[in-house]
């Protein structure tokens, strides 16, 4: 038990990585695989999922005992909450309000995870990121994503 507690951060990171990789493989299974010369839509996600599982195994092999078991402090909870809010806001606003407002809001909320970032800097960062994403995805790649 002490072995696991001393390596809890590495073990949990490896399990989360392997879990995400397994999820990606299972989801990619519903798409056509294709071949190396003619890749189907499920080819790249499957390779990505297996890569994540291999990386998780390497994380378990290379894990080291930590100095002490550290529980997240107050500012770490703020960071986790802000990042989760950024993901949630993007998922809830992308279809309803479009790409620019949803990316601006998500980047702004994510920037608040760092307590040294001023809100106006986060807002500028969000606007700049949204503008660059709109230029790349809408103008450059021609994707049918609503800007507003």
Describe the 3D structure:
Helices cover 70% and strands 0% of the residues. The protein starts with a helix and ends in an 8-residue tail after the last helix. The model has no long low-confidence stretch (mean pLDDT 88). By secondary structure, it is an all-alpha fold.
Helix and strand layout, with pairings?
Layout: H1 2-6, H2 8-28, H3 43-61, H4 74-97, H5 99-111, H6 119-140
Helix pairs in contact: 2-3, 4-5, 5-6
Short description:
The protein has 148 residues and is an all-alpha fold. It is 70% helix and 0% strand.
Order of helices and strands: HHHHHH
Gyration radius from CA atoms, angstroms: 20 Å
What's the overall average pLDDT, rounded? 88
| Low-confidence blocks of residues | none
Q: Briefly note the structural class of the backbone.
A: mainly alpha
Which shape, going by the Cα principal axes? Answer: flat
Q: What proportion strand?
A: under 5%
Can you count the beta strands? 0
Q: N- to C-terminal separation?
A: 53 Å
């Amino acid at each position: 038990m002490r072995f696991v507690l001393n390596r809890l951060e590495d073990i949990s990171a490896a399990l989360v990585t392997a879990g995400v990789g397994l999820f990606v493989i299972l989801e990619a299974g519903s798409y056509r695989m294709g071949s190396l010369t003619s890749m189907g839509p499920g080819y790249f996600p499957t390779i990505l999922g297996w890569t994540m599982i291999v990386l998780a195994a390497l994380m378990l092999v290379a894990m080291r005992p930590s100095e002490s078991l550290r529980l997240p402090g107050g500012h770490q909870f703020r960071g986790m909450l802000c990042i989760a809010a950024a993901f949630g806001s993007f998922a809830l606003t992308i279809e309803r309000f479009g790409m620019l407002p949803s990316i601006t809001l998500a980047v702004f909320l994510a920037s608040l995870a760092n307590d040294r970032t001023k809100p106006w800097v986060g807002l500028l960062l969000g606007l700049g990121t949204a503008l660059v994403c709109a230029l790349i995805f809408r103008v450059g790649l021609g994707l049918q994503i609503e800007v507003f």
